[in-house]
Structure formats: C-alpha cells, structure tokens
Amino acid sequence: MQVDDVVQQLKTIYQRRGVEHYGEQVTQLSHAVSCAKLAHHDGQSDSLVIAAFLHDVGHLVDDLDGFQSRIHDRVGADYLQQLGFDEAVVEPIRQHAEAKRYLCHREQGYLDTLSEASLISLVFQGGIMTDAEADRFENLERFNECVTLRRYDDLGKAENYIFSEAEWVFEKIELYLNQ
Fold first, then answer.
1. Which residues form a coiled coil (predicted)?
2. Which domain holds residue 73?
3. Going by C-beta distance under 8 Å and a sequence separation of 6 or more, which residues neighbour residue 164?
4. For FRET with 125, which of 9, 55, 91, 149 sits at 20 to 30 Å CA-CA?
C-alpha cells in the first residue's frame, strides 16, 4: 500500500469513528490528539508522537462485540504493522496495556490515579503484574517508550479536539512513512 493510501485510510477511520467514546469523557479523536500533543510538547521522537496518536486505533478498526477493547493494543499494533509502520511505532502500542499493568505493580500510588474505565479494563487485561512479569517487561527493548506512552495515555483525556486539529499528526505520519 502506498503511503498516501495509508494516511488516507487512517484519516477515514478517525473521521468516521473518532467521535466515539470508549468509557472515558473524551472522544477517541480528542484522546489521540491530546496524547500526541503531550508527546510532541515533551520533545519525543516522531515515532513516539505517532504511537501516542495511534495507540488506541485498535478500538476503531475492529468490531468484536466489546472483546476487541480487551485486546485493542494487539489489534491496533497488528493493523499498523500491516500498514507498514515499524517497531518503533508498533511496539509501544502493542505494550501500552502491559505498561499499565507494570506501573500498577511497580509504582506506588499509580493504581489510585487510574480512571474508572481504566480500572475496569485492567481486570480484562490481566490485572496487576507479578514480580516475574514485571521483571520480563523491564527487559523489553522499548521498555522506556512503552511506559512513556502509557503515561501519555493516562494524561491525554482533557481536551475536545476536532478533526482538523489532527492534520499535523497525519502530516508527521506521511513524512515518517516516506523516510
């Protein structure tokens, strides 16, 4: 698939389904833009800014009667990999639910910061990690990016953006895929 086609496909998904809510008080599009802006403001790499924007795309590309929300991280990562995104984008997306499980285990007070929707999904995602799971997670090549993306996911829930405010991210995606 050509880069222009990939970008157009992503735009179409966010135009059609970005207005949906997923248990939070913010739309999918607003959450995506908010997370990307946080990453951009912090001077993160283009790959992490893009991952921050696309991390919940698995909610939008598959309708499995609610089951997909339990595995949306994997659904989204697999989808983006098929579109040609590299591991620098895909792996933090694939691991962002695991990063929540990790932070609940390793970081005192983190669990108390989670929204009600995030607490509910934590149960379906495997609950709080064990010591052994956390040790394995810390050995991931992109461990830091996975945890950083998770923090943006937790914070990016305050704004109500419209589609045109995502254009800069789509331009960044096009440039990134054309490298």
1. none
2. 3-177
3. none
4. 9
pTM over 0.85: yes
Instruction: Give how many domains the chain has, as a whole number.
Output: 1
Cα gap 19→7, rounded to integer Å = 18
pLDDT of 88-143, one tens digit each? 999 999 999 999 999 999 999 999 999 888 898 899 899 999 999 999 999 999 99
No. of helices (H) and no. of strands (E), the chain:
13, 0
Do residues 151 and 122 make contact, with C-beta atoms less than 8 angstroms apart?
no
Provide the token pair at 5.
């086609």
d(CA 104, CA 99): 8
Residue whose C-alpha is closest to residue 51's, from 123, 124, 151: 151
- 177: Cβ contacts below 8 Å, ≥ 6 apart: 3, 6, 7, 84, 85
Residues 29, 159 contacting (CB under 8 angstroms): no
